[in-house]
Amino acid sequence: MRDDGWQVGTPEGLITVSDALAAALFAQPGSDVPMTSRHDLPIAAGIGLRSPHLAHVQAERPPVAWFEVHSENYFADGGPALAAIDRVRADYPLALHGVGLSLGSTDPLDRAHLDKLATLIARVEPALVSEHLCWSGVAGLHFNDLLPLPFTGEALAHVSSRIAEVQDYLGRQIAVENVSAYVAFDDSTMPEWEFVAAVVRRTGCKLLLDVNNVYVNAVNHGFDADGYLAAMPREAIAEIHLAGFDPTGPCLIDTHGARVAPEVWALYRRTIARIGPRPTLIEWDIDIPEFSVLEAEAAMAAAILADRDAVAA
Ligand SMILES: [Fe+2]
Q1: Is the pLDDT at 23 greater than 90, yes or no?
Q2: How far apart are the CA of 210 and the centre of ligand 1, in A?
Q3: CA of 281 to the centre of ligand 1 (A)
Q4: For residues 202 and 88, what is the distance between their CA atoms, to the nearest angstrom?
Q5: What Rg do the C-alpha atoms of the chain give, in angstroms?
Q6: Tens digit of each residue's pLDDT (9 = 90 or more) over 254-295
């Protein structure tokens, strides 16, 4: 151990992490070292909880295995939203999913944002904290979008160091999510799947694998989705996202505004057959339907997870 942290061997060489992160990275169930959270996500289907359904969930306590919320929606110091999520958390495991950290940006990491995230983590004790492998602002401008990175060695080193910085700051692993993209960079020197896998290897972070995003990118950019998924480090996959896209334009648009497409269900089924069951979330962010529709989508995912359990048994 060095004065400023632990040295961890990775395929890219030694990296230095803090005591707290080292404890999280090396912790094993049953050991004396605490895990990253005292609650793990159930290996079951969860639902992305958005404000239109908060009151229903509090009142009815529907039989959903777990929920995920957008971290930034609960950054206020108080108020009804935070009180509502406290009550949800009392009844369900919870994951925090960030959309605003801009991990890939060349601006300095936003310490105020990180402080708010750390405060929320301490409050709700989430089973998982995740962010997107993307950038959403530069030079102080915020674009309110999840923008893709060029897949270069330089971008890999940059975003990996930022993820390590965030993990160090929070004292825990985070999961990073592959994003959908509608442009590709001429400068890219490796395919997306190599870039994503290398980020995980370099940083020791977890992977939030969005199977819908893989499908959307595979169609739009013309690669093999199964090949991409086979290249993912299965032991790092802590969560899977499923969502719906809009197929009516010249390319698929990842809207999170529709049911999961049959092709994505099929890809998800093959993924679970290959890697084993994982916590799986239904995301729906625009034109949000009745809660029963989300429950039906979650039931589809649960059936596939159960199928895999039956095969494995
Ligand atoms: Fe997602």
Answers
A1: no
A2: 5
A3: 8
A4: 35
A5: 19
A6: 999 999 999 999 999 999 999 999 999 999 999 999 999 999
